Amino acid sequence: MKIKFLLLCLVLAVPVPAVLAQPAPAPKPAGQKDLDMATLTEAQIKQVEVPAVLGRLAGFYQEKEDMRRLTWTLERLSQLRPSSGEVKLALAAAYANLDDKSRAYDVLLKMQQQGFGYNLTDDPRFKKVSDTRVWTYAVENLRANLKPFGEGKVAFTLPQGDYLFESIGWDPKRKRFLVGSVREGKVYLADDKGKLTEFIAPSAQNGLWGVHGLAVDAERDALYVASTASVYYKGFKAEDNGRAGIFKFKLSTGAFVEKYLLPEAGAPHTLSSVVVSRKGQVFATDGVKNLLFRLDGKTLKPLLDGSRLTSLRGVTVSDDGKLLYYADFTHGIAGLDLTTGKGFGLAFDPSLLVLSGIEGLYWYDGTLIAIEPGMSPKRVLRLHLTPDGKGVTKVMPIDAAKPEFDFPTVGVIADDALYFIADSRRTHYDAYGVPKDPAASAPLQIYRSDARFAWDQKGIAVSGSVRELAPMAPGERSLDASGVKFSPPKTAPEKKTEQSELEKALDQKGGD
């Protein structure tokens, strides 16, 4: 069951356009024998570069109870997905099944050091290795990481209803929150009690679709709305499918100003995040095609073609407008130097810190604050940066493992605090935008974490020379300027990754 879950996660991590664009398998060359997965060598498995292929192999070996090859497969998968707790845990369990105490304990102890938390007390997968003091130590420390931490609390609760709120903003001049509804395409004002007042609604003039992101520029009286036509929007029309753009309104009145649409030729798009810098620069992300855009005049121009990313999420900009940071759900945080057009990886010690699984990312007083629902436990972190902003010196957990953290996603900095959605309703809708259960309309909790919590405390030192870079290829550790300067984005069919002979054979053979 665990391996099947892992395989599902791997499949979901593949961008939808890339899946749809897979070419038909090439005819098998004359004389080539069928690939027998049951006889693959360790060396062959370690040639595989595609996690989804390894996922199919893992499922096959689990079903056949071939623990040796399952272990080889998970070892390779762990190399390609070094921040995945589920992969690490599956690997430790595979070692335990082989009664390899040393390697099972090594994986678990390193996970505990990275901050992972799991309750393995009665996990039957580890029965063979659960009779030592080292096991007891590892289990106790992994369980300790699940203890709730931090002083944050629920600030207010939004009323029940079929809204699917996926964005929140803050108007510092009028001291009011704004929340955006994917289902209705509306922007509401929210007071500190959670009371809603309609502020902006779709109209023939503005042409809004579902609201996925909000960015406030109070100095210039502007509100930017990232909007997409998808099946989750109640007013969805098939002919608009995948159209998206940034819509500008007056922050003070909600009056429509203008809109900047992505070309229909590049659809489908999903503009899921938008941010505006203190200098008025506007950036937006497409979380499906993994593209990063900058608003240049009245045109959204591609700043980064992240064809190697898995799922682009949060984006933020330093106060001086020189550095842009973005989070990929699988690979973690990377950035762009906007003065040179060069990408950089965020340097830190990955043996002490995991930065995958991030949804929301925010700049605050020279630090980055991240909302990390893909981590176990779910948490909010503050990352203190090196003077050049391209490395992490220390990390301070702000809130972690709170019972309200069902699925924390995005937020906004307001008066030295992070206000964020603690229990997104997203997972309670099916792929057709239909609510799956009553929880889709349940009241939504907005949580408040103190952005300056334990500001002067030592924190956890995580300085390191390793640079985690989201869009990296095998053996590649950095992006040059050609990878980030303005250029037309490639369509999904053009994003081909060279496959090894083994991967080609596996694709031809298929697999469950």
Oligomer: single chain
Separation of termini?
14 Å
Backbone structural class: alpha+beta
Number of strands: 27
Helix count, DSSP H or I runs of 4 or more residues: 9
Estimate what percentage of residues fall within beta strands. Answer: 25-35%
Overall 3D shape: globular
The pLDDT mean sits at 87
- State the helical fraction: 10-25%
Largest sheet geometry: 6 strands, antiparallel
C-alpha Rg (nearest Å): 23 Å
Low-confidence stretches: 7-26, 469-498, 501-512
Keyword list:
six-stranded antiparallel β-sheet; five-stranded antiparallel β-sheet; disordered C terminus; 512 residues; alpha+beta
Descriptive overview:
The chain has helices at residues 2-13, 16-20, 42-45, 51-64, 67-80, 85-97, 101-114, 133-144, 501-509, and strands at residues 149-150, 153-158, 165-171, 176-181, 187-190, 196-200, 210-217, 222-228, 244-250, 256-261, 271-276, 282-286, 291-296, 299-305, 312-317, 323-328, 332-337, 342-347, 360-364, 367-372, 379-385, 392-400, 411-414, 417-421, 444-450, 460-461, 467-468. By secondary structure, it is of the alpha+beta class.
